[in-house]
Amino acid sequence: MHPSSAVLPQLADILSREESACELLLATLREERSAIQRLAVSEFTSINERRLGILASLETLDTERQRFAGQVSASWGLPPAAVTLQTILEQMKSASVPGLDERYARLAERLRAIREEIALNSTLIDNIRQFIEQMMSAWTSSANSEGLYSPSGGRHSAIYEGSFLQQRG
Fold first, then answer.
1. pLDDT tens-digit series, residues 120-140
2. Closest Cα partner for 68 from 9, 144, 141?
3. What domains are defined for the chain?
């Protein structure tokens, strides 16, 4: 039930290309986080375009990997859903194919790192959004003009709502 030796280089190539694409995506996500932290809005478009290109290549690789697994499942006489990359790698251990397990483990680690980077960026964006919403709310909140202080600390009537601090205590 081993894949033929002609199929092994194809699997190694797919894993290698997926790992490279994941590395590019990881670098792009880190660049995105840097741009978010610096509020470098002008960089977002080019970063997003790069990310979309990488995601498109990963989608193509996913299709190729599924086709590969389908070919292997057909050669093994199994339904396509029964054969995964993990199944193929387990079967190849006894075929002594060096490096594929390590490559697969690196790919899995890159995928975990990508999920973490996406979560970090998402949290950062959400925190910035909440901050902006709070600032907008403070700006537009209606406060009565009594007990307000101007930025210089003097009592003042509000011309623009939310532009002064309200006296408490």
1. 999 999 999 998 888 877 766
2. 9
3. 7-166 (1.20.58)
pLDDT tier at 97, thresholds 50, 70, 90: low
How many whole angstroms separate alpha carbon 107 and alpha carbon 12? 12
**Distances 65 to 13, 15, 17, 69 between C-alpha atoms, Å:** 10, 9, 11, 6
Can you tell me the distance from the alpha carbon of 47 to that of 59, in angstroms, rounded to the nearest whole number?
Answer: 18
What six digits make up the tokens of 117? 């980077």
| Chain centroid to CA 36 | 14
Cross-strand bridge partners of residue 149: 155, 165
Partnered with residue 166 across adjacent β-strands are 148
Mean pLDDT of the residues in the chain:
82
Taking the whole predicted model, whether its pTM rises above 0.90 is answered as no
Task: Report d(CA 108, CA 113) in Å as an integer.
Answer: 9
Q: Is the CB of residue 26 less than 8 Å from the CB of residue 114? A: yes
Quick one: which of 64, 72, 74 has its CA closest to 95?
A: 72
